[in-house]
User: Fold this.
Amino acid sequence: MSARLDQPILSVQGLTTALARSHATVLEDISFTIAPGEVVGVVGESGSGKSMLALSLMGLLPSAVRRTAGRIVLDGDELTSGSADHWRETRGRDLAMIFQEPMTALNPVMRVGHQVVEVLRRRRGFSGYEARKEALNLLRLVEIPSPEKRISAYPYELSGGMRQRVMIAIALAADPKVLIADEPTTALDVTVQAQILDLLRKLRRERGLSLLFITHDLGVIAEIADRVMVLYAGRMAEIAPVRRIFDTPQHPYTQALLASIPDMKGPRGRLVTIDGAVPAIGSMLEACRFSPRCPYRHEICERERPPLGLVSGDQAAACFRPFGYERPIEAVS
Ligand SMILES: Nc1ncnc2c1ncn2[C@@H]1O[C@H](COP(=O)(O)OP(=O)(O)OP(=O)(O)O)[C@@H](O)[C@H]1O
Ligand SMILES: [Mg+2]
Assistant:
């Protein structure tokens, strides 16, 4: 199931965002790539910056938050160098996003089929008849039963799981190169959640879909991601293939997240079982932000920012501990 070692489809380098007024950083120095057909999971507690990362990539940051540094390159096209129009055009076509609560993203007064048709016409130039045919194909692809009937339903007439399938169909209608999913299964019950994960896995297998999959749930990460980025207080704590995250986690925060899973098969709660809380924006340490909660805290941790150091070929952690509390060589991503 490993991804091809092609050129990355998405490359993010040094992405930093800050509050426009206070200049407090929200995301700091985020760097990673997604290979074609790869699923990169993003995990972290509430407030760690997962949604801000998704919105930064979409060029949809709230007005209070600005990108202050960093490059975002999508399939060789640098989104951060062109105009806002260029970004808007690209994100409509090549980047698509699905959200936690489809009801807020769907138009409540428009039939779901029409919402798929709209994207097909606007983004891909389909004519009315072709667009309807393709919309039906897409509803079928996302496994909506009796799509001929459901195509004329309004969002409120569908269950949560069906609405999320419609959202995925709308996202796919633009034929995106990368799909960003921000907690797409959190609002769903466990059975429906498993079905949506199955669907995303199928799309990845059959259409080579590249995914950035955001969740606070490590159980979900285990089921879908090839690689995992762990975010803490707006910084990358660790990035590694999913197996390494579970088998040999290097950052104490990753270890704490894993320890906080009560039972991987049990009910999935928020990650709140680690003592302490993510620091609020504006009160962030320049040094290691996890150090106040870290059982392995060392003097250097309170003085210096740990760079993202390469622990092994494909695993990097922003922690001094794996390096004997020496400053590691920074990983180039
Ligand atoms: N509209 C906004 N304006 C200013 N700051 C914001 C805004 N939305 C979020 N933030 C701040 O940005 C930081 C990161 O928030 P973000 O929503 O990305 O977290 P998250 O990891 O997605 O959390 P959750 O798991 O709850 O969805 C938080 O400190 C939050 O307070
Ligand atoms: Mg969020």
Summary: Confidence is low (pLDDT under 50) at residues 264-272.
